[in-house]
């Protein structure tokens, strides 16, 4: 009987050991270097991400340049749009408001972007350009009106002078409202011409004029991004070449940057926003400045002379491509050139005499086919000779596989681009199945930039199912850091009342924002990127999804940390035994620092009202010698850090 009990006990121990996942990190010989740009963010003005979003301007159509110039405005009384003897040559429209001294008044109301978000006791900086009849004084009443049509800030000012002049004042609100309006009225006889009527919160990011929305930029900063890709995306291409993003229109005095229609205003017929334009108030100067603020490398994307190939066959002939190539050369000069150069002086005059140290440049967004390769070749021929210091990025098309993808990769190798931009929007299952995607890529060719990716659950929610799949997939990016050198989730921002595409990393309304589970996964990678890949082995596991486990490990030589990332995609807890080997002096702490995000419900999301439904949790666990024993909760992602 004793022998039987002993045999059963031995069997139980054997089963327990076999059920335990035993991983070993070898820190003796660090592997591939992880680029500082490895994890970053991609920005595109979709879902009202710029105007109405991170760009803090509160007035819609501030220069009356929309196709229908009163979109965003409600005129009352005697108000007309004019363009003779204009204040700005690239934005010639302005309004003439004529007061008749009657009780009905004349003026304008602006609804902002799904309302104007106003906070109690906050200051709002109003500016406008104006002129009046010679010798006249026009009395203006300026108001912020809440969603109940009650004034929450009122100011009276007088305007004189028959030449265009800029006027400024400050409005302070006495209450909070997410759907306010701005109203101005002429209170006496006479007319006033007005242009570029602008309202900004005083508390912008870094307190800048023409600034950015503070809470949204803070969310980006907290990601610790290494690269910032802008301005798109499909708006780089445009539905027509005329409506493509032209960076030169987005720099210089903000009042004189010409309006451009946003290609996303009519692309989704079920999410049609005919009032969606690009003011270019957040232009290339602001993008470069934001990159600098975030500590991220700027990565602009330029048109290659092809309109969006999904919607148009319009293209620039090879013989007429020179202006597009010159735009690229001029952009490099704008970013890096001396202040004595034409475009370097433009940068300096805008307030940044120092170089932005541009290193990367992408030519084309999601183009494909021979027409793209031919045009990219022309760019490379010129740029590689004149600016060999710039890393050039080509495209593998809009899909992660298939005919166009298979054609483009060999062509990118022939062109000898440094990086190939891959995009994938796929199901969570695809991400789980492709954690080993880059294991077999040719190391002799270009490297990979995962420029746009996101897991799309069936309902397209930003739920934990998608976030966990992305976390698991990204262990494969990290293990293959010699091949994959940059990765950016997409899209970045979405207004809850004006979105067209989902999922998105950060959602917001006019007053607050919410960080999604996907955001937190990106943050866990971005703040724990490491400097070199480490070998990670597991007994009986390939760590690429076998038994639902995904893992990678890195060392951060700057912080003296070993970092392991583990995703458990099972619906049951797994026991992990994790041992660190190869350190000369061993670990310098008997505890491991752990960040974990987990949910029993894969459909859980964060909302504006409940932004903390699922967030990372931080805790420590004791180490026995150089081994950590840890229970990996079901549906979980862990970042485990050892100090040495």
From TrEMBL:
<dbReference type="Pfam" id="PF22848">
    <property type="entry name" value="ASD1_dom"/>
</dbReference>
<dbReference type="Pfam" id="PF06964">
    <property type="entry name" value="Alpha-L-AF_C"/>
</dbReference>
<dbReference type="InterPro" id="IPR010720">
    <property type="entry name" value="Alpha-L-AF_C"/>
</dbReference>
<protein>
    <recommendedName>
        <fullName>non-reducing end alpha-L-arabinofuranosidase</fullName>
        <ecNumber>3.2.1.55</ecNumber>
    </recommendedName>
</protein>
<dbReference type="InterPro" id="IPR013780">
    <property type="entry name" value="Glyco_hydro_b"/>
</dbReference>
<comment type="similarity">
    <text>Belongs to the glycosyl hydrolase 51 family.</text>
</comment>
<feature type="domain" description="Alpha-L-arabinofuranosidase C-terminal">
    <location>
        <begin position="451"/>
        <end position="636"/>
    </location>
</feature>
<dbReference type="InterPro" id="IPR008979">
    <property type="entry name" value="Galactose-bd-like_sf"/>
</dbReference>
<keyword id="KW-0378">Hydrolase</keyword>
<keyword id="KW-0325">Glycoprotein</keyword>
<keyword id="KW-0732">Signal</keyword>
<dbReference type="Pfam" id="PF02018">
    <property type="entry name" value="CBM_4_9"/>
</dbReference>
<dbReference type="InterPro" id="IPR051563">
    <property type="entry name" value="Glycosyl_Hydrolase_51"/>
</dbReference>
<feature type="signal peptide">
    <location>
        <begin position="1"/>
        <end position="19"/>
    </location>
</feature>
<dbReference type="InterPro" id="IPR003305">
    <property type="entry name" value="CenC_carb-bd"/>
</dbReference>
<dbReference type="InterPro" id="IPR017853">
    <property type="entry name" value="GH"/>
</dbReference>
<dbReference type="InterPro" id="IPR055235">
    <property type="entry name" value="ASD1_cat"/>
</dbReference>
